[in-house]
Design a protein that fits this description.
The complex is a heterodimer of chains A (153) and B (428).
Chain A (H helix, E strand, L loop, with lengths): L4 H8 L12 E7 L4 E10 L2 E10 L2 H14 L4 H5 L3 H7 L8 H21 L5 H4 L23
Antiparallel strand pairs in A: 1-2, 2-3
Chain B lengths: L4 H8 L5 E2 L10 H13 L9 H21 L6 E4 L2 H16 L5 E5 L4 H12 L3 E5 L9 H7 L4 E5 L13 H11 L2 E5 L18 E5 L10 E5 L14 H4 L7 H39 L3 E3 L10 E6 L4 H10 L2 E2 L15 H5 L4 H4 L2 E5 L6 H21 L1 H8 L25
Parallel strand pairs in B: 1-11, 3-4, 3-5, 5-6, 6-7
Antiparallel strand pairs in B: 2-8, 7-8, 9-10, 10-12
Classes of the chains: A alpha+beta (153), B alpha/beta (428).
Chain lengths: 153, 428
């Protein structure tokens, strides 16, 4: 299994790693039992994501996808950020090994988890938007794999 | 002033790579490589052929067998060449099951065996065999009395590895072997990691069968051994010609058999000296890592372990990312993290010694060899703390711990012998 140069670059030199002291919202997804957990802090002004920072416990691709996801959503409106899919994150990294695709799901979930609580708190959740959060109900492992240890815990 | 992470990463480019994964495989010794090169050129005959080239190959093969037998203090007829340790394990286990299934269908093994053993057991379970998997303690040691308690009238085989490939724990094989012999049950031991590192004499160990592999002791990949005591009857695994006394088909790999004999002789000649040397390096590494890196535990037994094996868990971080940085810094190591396995499961060995998954994910295995030096350990003891610190800075678990909202499972001062009860209590 070999990572692309871009994955290694984002792993070795992660962008936007850290925490936002006065974050508008944040989302934590994953589980230490499964070996990955991702926390995403967002600073939102006028519905625009002006800053994003992450902290990730996990493998190289979990860290790289977190980093890439923050780069992709900064400057977008919250609604635009909802359309940043895990596939787009993986493609921006020049692809991930198939066994690592679930890590990109985690990145999408972390952004959505943060946005979900933002919409709910601000009273902005609409049925249309709610549809976009379906991914949060899934275990990122189950979607891709039969043998996820998560379901046994 | 201490070097920074970035400085050390840059400097590492000018340094030769440091290979710390000898439990995975080893670089063949130069003398072994010479043997292989010479034989490939000069002795390509098939040992079964009736002309001079064949006779010469047969002589070389039997000479290699005799030399290996002498190293193990057994009879040459008790040594069988295979393609690898995995084949030897498969053959010993499935061959015994097939030959003795009318007598019984119960087999005993442990939860920390190599997959070559565990997956052979699972294959037999699908055929209706009943397998008992004995637990080890938190240091990875099997209490021999557990074997006695598990024995039944229909038990046909006990298989317990001599030394574990991940945590290096050495089992009380001699005692386990005598319990089996007393009960009249065949005893197999996977000695792949042990041979060449610690004394292995199947007769002394009361073992009926033992599996070995060439490439773990500075011979090439593609050659393994099965020791099978005279009179022990097992079925064939590889059907074919009349090679290996009709018990294992396939043209013999004469070149690699000779290479293995050479490598084994050299390892044994060096063993006393190397074992002392590597144990000293290992212990300096273990104590150095635990002193320098907070929240670190040693996995396995502090003393009953292979001279070359160290295995650690670093809390709050994940193993694959440690390996990636180590690779970048010039080191080849291994981890029991799920993320480094194709199955995405954390190491069954680390789970079996009671580590919660979140701690098993953050494991690192360092295995030394004849090419390992004090200077390499010095470098490692500078670089590893920087890497762990870098990853902890990225870890939300570590910030939670720092904020006091997450407990630590491994105390800050670390431990050589820690039993962990339960994880963070996270549920998914």
């Amino acid at each position: 299994m070999q990572y692309s140069d871009k994955v290694l670059d984002h792993f070795m030199n992660p962008r936007n790693m850290g925490e936002i002291e006065d974050a508008t919202t944040s989302g934590t997804v994953g589980n230490p039992v499964c070996g990955d957990i991702m926390k995403m802090d967002l600073k939102i002004v006028d519905n625009i994501i002006v800053d994003a920072k992450f902290k990730t416990f996990g493998c190289g691709s979990a860290i790289a996808t977190s980093s890439m996801a923050t780069e992709m959503i900064i400057g977008l409106t919250t609604d635009e950020a909802l359309d940043v899919t895990n596939k787009a994150v993986a493609e921006a990294l020049d692809g991930l090994p198939p066994v690592k695709m679930h890590c990109s799901v985690l990145a999408e979930q972390a952004v959505k988890k943060a946005l979900e609580s933002y919409y709910i708190r601000e009273g902005l959740m609409t049925p249309e938007r709610a549809k976009k959060f379906a991914i949060l109900g899934q275990c990122e492992h189950e979607e891709n794999y039969e043998h996820c240890g998560c379901s046994d815990e | 002033m201490n070097s920074t992470f970035e400085e050390r990463m840059r400097e590492s480019v000018n340094r030769p790579r440091i290979y710390f994964d000898h439990a995975a495989t080893t670089l063949p010794r130069p003398e072994v490589i010479d043997t292989v090169a010479t034989l490939l050129k000069e002795s390509y005959g098939n040992p079964s052929s009736f002309y001079q080239e064949g006779h010469r190959a047969a002589e070389l093969l039997e000479d290699a067998r005799a030399r290996i037998a002498a190293c193990l203090d057994v009879h040459p007829e008790e040594i069988f060449f295979t393609s690898c340790g995995t084949e030897s394990d498969n053959w010993a286990i499935k061959g015994t099951a097939d030959a003795h299934r009318r007598r019984g269908r119960h087999i005993i093994t442990t939860t920390i065996e190599h997959h070559a053993v565990l997956h052979s057991m699972e294959a037999l379970e699908r055929e209706g065999f009943d397998v008992t998997y004995l637990d080890v303690d938190h240091r990875g040691i099997l209490e021999p009395e557990k074997v006695r308690e598990a024995l039944r009238d229909d038990t046909i085989l006990v298989s317990v590895m001599m030394a574990n490939n991940e945590i290096g724990t050495i089992q009380p094989i001699k005692v386990i072997g005598s319990i089996c012999r007393e009960a009249g049950v065949l005893f197999h031991s996977d000695g792949v990691q042990a041979l060449g590192a610690i004394p292995v004499y199947p007769n002394e160990l009361n073992a009926d069968m033992m599996s070995f592999s060439g490439h773990k002791l500075y011979a090439p990949k593609g050659i393994g051994l099965l020791y099978k005591r005279k009179g022990v009857r097992i079925d064939r695994l590889i059907d074919g010609g009349a090679q290996e006394k009709r018990q294992r088909g396939g043209t013999e790999n004469v070149t690699y058999a000779v290479a293995l004999a050479k490598a084994l002789e050299m390892s044994l000649a060096d063993m006393e000296k190397e074992s002392k040397r590597q144990t000293a390096l290992r212990d300096r590494l273990i104590h150095g890592v635990i002193e320098r890196i907070p929240h670190t535990k040693l996995n396995g037994h502090a003393t009953e372990r292979l001279p070359n094996n160290a295995n650690f868990s670093f809390e709050f971080i994940e193993g694959e990312s440690i390996l990636l940085f180590l690779d970048k810094f010039g080191y080849a190591c291994s981890s029991g993290s799920a993320c480094t396995s194709a199955s995405l499961d954390p190491s069954h060995v680390l789970l079996a010694i009671g580590l919660p998954a979140e701690i098993a994910h953050g494991s690192l295995r360092v295995t030394l060899g004849i090419d390992s030096t004090d200077e390499q350990i010095n470098h490692f003891l500078i670089d590893l703390p920087l890497i762990v610190e870098r990853l902890r800075d990225m870890s939300p678990l570590y910030s939670d711990y720092k904020r006091g909202v997450l407990p630590s499972l491994i105390p800050e001062e670390g431990s050589l012998d820690l039993e962990i009860a339960g994880g963070y209590g996270w549920s998914s």
